Amino acid sequence: MKYGSDNIVDAIYSGEKNGNPFLEAMPEIMSTQEVIRRLASFPKLPQDTKHITDEQREGLISSLGDFFLPMPYMIYIYHKLHRAMLSSCRSLSAYQRIQKIDSFFNGRPVNFLTQPDNCAILGVPGIGKTSTIKRCLSLVPQVIRHHEYDSRPFECTQVTYIYIECPADCSLKTLCYEILEAIDSCAGTNFLTKYTTGMSLSALATHIKRVVSSCNLSLIVIDEIQNAVDFANKSHRIKPLIKFLVELTNEVSSAICFVGTTSAELVFRQEMHLMRRTRGYRLNAMKNDGAFYNFLKELWQYQYLERPAKLTNTMRKIFYQYSGGVPSYIVHLFQESQSQALLNNEKTLTEASVFKAAKILNYVVPEPYVEGVSISDFEVKDFYIGHGMATDIEDAEGIENTENTAEVAATTETTADTANSNNAKKPEKSKQNKKAASAFPAIKKETNPPAAPKGRPVSDREVEDILQIYEDSNRTIPIPRALIEKDLVTVILC
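^ that's the sequence the OP posted. Answer follows.
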């Protein structure tokens, strides 16, 4: 690699000489395996959990917050960000900045793009947008110092990216201040002090463009952009925000990446020029498919209770029921479940502890974005996740694909008929697992309930199935009482 892990480096020029020192100094794109290695973060694997104290267990459980499993969609984001930086170095405005430099060095002709590669990465909360982008940006040195180019003195600072996060009450002026502060923080300048005293918003916006160009900034990442949009809507200043964003994408040489929830899509669609420059990913949570199963299987290794629990098909269904396939929800639910088990003096992870954790966390499963794509749908050739440790899996044959419920059901029926005709032996599920799968406790919420898994096997029944309620009651509880407990009937006293 051209550069190490330092955030500030001296320029190393590579590739074909084209008179563009900013482009030549950019780090090369990493291989998929290297990106995976650099992005991954795992806590300490459990060793001898039988002979440690409860205090030590709680400390190990808290370390699950460090769990970060690279997924294929993150590779796409890394390439998107890196490509945006390169496009900025090739842009017309960048050429104007270095035109005198190029003419000084023998006047070599250079071809540049006229627009940087702007984009927007929007998605449901909790899928890992912010953490992924921060980790991807950390793979690139933020400041490249130029001293000499083509055997000639060339003192210049190149800022490859800045990352800003819009606060909850982010006005347009606050957004400008955040940009200046981010530049000062990495480049050692004092633009924030210089341009915040007695300056109108329009003048401040003009100076922002000059500052961005003067520090040779390649990429501006604006996270939580929905906060700026929401505040602008509430204060009836949405038009100035749109005007500023459009001008920023049009007039500066820096590429801009907007990151946030899908609620920010509204402002992008209000202006054609802005919508055209904010192409990118609209991300939804994982489906109840192999990607979700692999994620949970990798996480399942980090059990710090006395006895590791098996990852059964029932447990997998429970975790999808209450997480909706959102990675951060899955990790926090797994973490809180172990804490609840520890508080109740349980030696292993149980379904009851998961139910308690789900009730405490009370996650609201986000609605899928109508035009988005699931993070399960991304594929990268030769992609490898995890560190290859075997996990004891019981009853793992029921991995479901929720993309097409009818198709899955038809396939299941066809497979069953074929198996019967060939006298194939079908594996039997334990009665305990079957009963538990139909006994998910309902968690009452003021908002939308968690989405039920789709594409279930034909033999399975939902909680609301009256026949299942009858079987579960073992004829000891009257059917009307069972229906009342399941909130399927309402009793009106006259």
